[in-house]
Amino acid sequence: MDIRLSTATGRWLIFTTVLGSSMALLDSTVVNVALPRIGADLHAELGALQWIANAYTVTLAGLILLGGSLGDRYGRRRVFVIGVVWFALGSLLCGLAPNAGILIFARALQGIGGALLTPGSLAIIQASFHPDDRSKAVGMWSGFGGIGAAIGPFLGGWLVDGPGWRWVFLINLPLAAVCVPVAMRHVPETKDPEHHGRFDVAGAALGALALALLAYSLIAKNLWAGALGVVGAMSFVFLEKRRRDPMLPLSIFSSRQFTAVNLVTLCVYAALGGFFFLSTLQLQVVSGYSPLQAGTALLPTTVLLLLFSPRSGQLADRIGPRIPLTVGPLLCAAGLLLMLRVGRQAVYVTDVLPAVVVLGAGLVTLIAPLTSTVLSSVETAKAGLASGVNNAAARAAGLIAVAALPLLTGMGPAAYRSATQFDQSFDKAMPLCAGIMVAGALVACLGVRSPSPAEVPRECAEPECRFSCGISAPPLEHVKAAPPDKTP
């Protein structure tokens, strides 16, 4: 395809992919703001709120690699449109849910839709535009997506305060109603003619099941579920090792640099997942903020990412990844510790803003270098897989953190209804999150290297997404998939 950005088709293509990907991006940022109102309306305990946040992540993290492969094989536009429709139907069920159980089920359905549409949006752009316009098109898509991420918490808070929390989900219906017909009319269909057409459905399902069982064991304090989750995880590794065409070729971890960066990713996004889940509750339950105030309170973090991520990536290119990936988590840890100032009647300018700015500075320092290091640690043929693994690892880490932190800090089922109890648990959680960030910094310092030119693969990919504004996971790059792994 050689679509030019200056044409009407090019502009429609950008509009459609931004609109579709924004649905999933908004959902990952606005739901936390609505959790206290959802709990009060549906008479849900804290465990149900954890699952409302996590059910979406379980299916998204478990199936996102499979979703990218389906688009390459059957058509990126087709799978993207199916994902948008699926996501919208899941959103409708979320908005109409009469109880927490139905809402959790609907959130899992949303995650399946997200796994289908999220990889496709960038893949469509990269496969459709003329090479001379591709970089600019990706930059526009990434930049507009960053703006969507910035307004997401504000929009979520406004919806919860206004028409109600159900509209946090129902807002996706008009977006999908616009996105689907525009995609069918203006987005060309593209496929990967070299895709082998075999899919590791069993591996994807087993990975998602293992994540779900591990999360359930932590939320419900069920040892049997934890044991089954461990068995499921071990079975997933065994299956991927034995399959001819695995979803996750384990040989990719033969790169020490790739393995170290993914360990850093696990630490960073585990801490972030716990922070964003608990902080929106803290601001509303303890500090007395409205949903709108709580949603906008964390906005500086995303704004800083939007403004300075490209420069951070350029700096890392000059000095190497070790220093940014070490300093960044340490700055984030300092920001998390500053959140201990956020208690009853917290003043935004003196109590919340300093913590959010320091946290944002840490994320600016580390996220862009993290993405570029993941891509440069493998050859170009495996860059798409490497990015997908890194994205899925981040989401899985956040999921486990949301499940584990309430258990580790002694939160009871009704803790979020008591300002005193929740404040005490929050004060225990932030040092834990900061400690996980410090662990990530240590891994980076000891395990991440700034390789010499001779050690860099002769052909390695450069990141396309320079505006790294998603705080739920690193940017998902789509680069030509690896050929089937034939390693015995």
From TrEMBL:
<feature type="transmembrane region" description="Helical">
    <location>
        <begin position="165"/>
        <end position="187"/>
    </location>
</feature>
<feature type="domain" description="Major facilitator superfamily (MFS) profile">
    <location>
        <begin position="13"/>
        <end position="452"/>
    </location>
</feature>
<feature type="transmembrane region" description="Helical">
    <location>
        <begin position="320"/>
        <end position="340"/>
    </location>
</feature>
<dbReference type="GO" id="GO:0046677">
    <property type="term" value="P:response to antibiotic"/>
</dbReference>
<feature type="transmembrane region" description="Helical">
    <location>
        <begin position="79"/>
        <end position="98"/>
    </location>
</feature>
<keyword id="KW-1133">Transmembrane helix</keyword>
<protein>
    <submittedName>
        <fullName>Drug resistance transporter, EmrB/QacA subfamily</fullName>
    </submittedName>
</protein>
<keyword id="KW-1003">Cell membrane</keyword>
<feature type="transmembrane region" description="Helical">
    <location>
        <begin position="47"/>
        <end position="67"/>
    </location>
</feature>
<keyword id="KW-0813">Transport</keyword>
<keyword id="KW-0046">Antibiotic resistance</keyword>
<feature type="transmembrane region" description="Helical">
    <location>
        <begin position="12"/>
        <end position="35"/>
    </location>
</feature>
<feature type="transmembrane region" description="Helical">
    <location>
        <begin position="352"/>
        <end position="375"/>
    </location>
</feature>
<keyword id="KW-0472">Membrane</keyword>
<dbReference type="InterPro" id="IPR011701">
    <property type="entry name" value="MFS"/>
</dbReference>
<feature type="transmembrane region" description="Helical">
    <location>
        <begin position="396"/>
        <end position="416"/>
    </location>
</feature>
<feature type="transmembrane region" description="Helical">
    <location>
        <begin position="199"/>
        <end position="217"/>
    </location>
</feature>
<keyword id="KW-0812">Transmembrane</keyword>
<dbReference type="GO" id="GO:0005886">
    <property type="term" value="C:plasma membrane"/>
</dbReference>
<feature type="transmembrane region" description="Helical">
    <location>
        <begin position="260"/>
        <end position="278"/>
    </location>
</feature>
<dbReference type="InterPro" id="IPR036259">
    <property type="entry name" value="MFS_trans_sf"/>
</dbReference>
<dbReference type="InterPro" id="IPR020846">
    <property type="entry name" value="MFS_dom"/>
</dbReference>
<feature type="transmembrane region" description="Helical">
    <location>
        <begin position="223"/>
        <end position="239"/>
    </location>
</feature>
<dbReference type="GO" id="GO:0022857">
    <property type="term" value="F:transmembrane transporter activity"/>
</dbReference>
<feature type="transmembrane region" description="Helical">
    <location>
        <begin position="428"/>
        <end position="448"/>
    </location>
</feature>
<dbReference type="InterPro" id="IPR004638">
    <property type="entry name" value="EmrB-like"/>
</dbReference>
<feature type="transmembrane region" description="Helical">
    <location>
        <begin position="290"/>
        <end position="308"/>
    </location>
</feature>
<feature type="transmembrane region" description="Helical">
    <location>
        <begin position="137"/>
        <end position="159"/>
    </location>
</feature>
<dbReference type="Pfam" id="PF07690">
    <property type="entry name" value="MFS_1"/>
</dbReference>
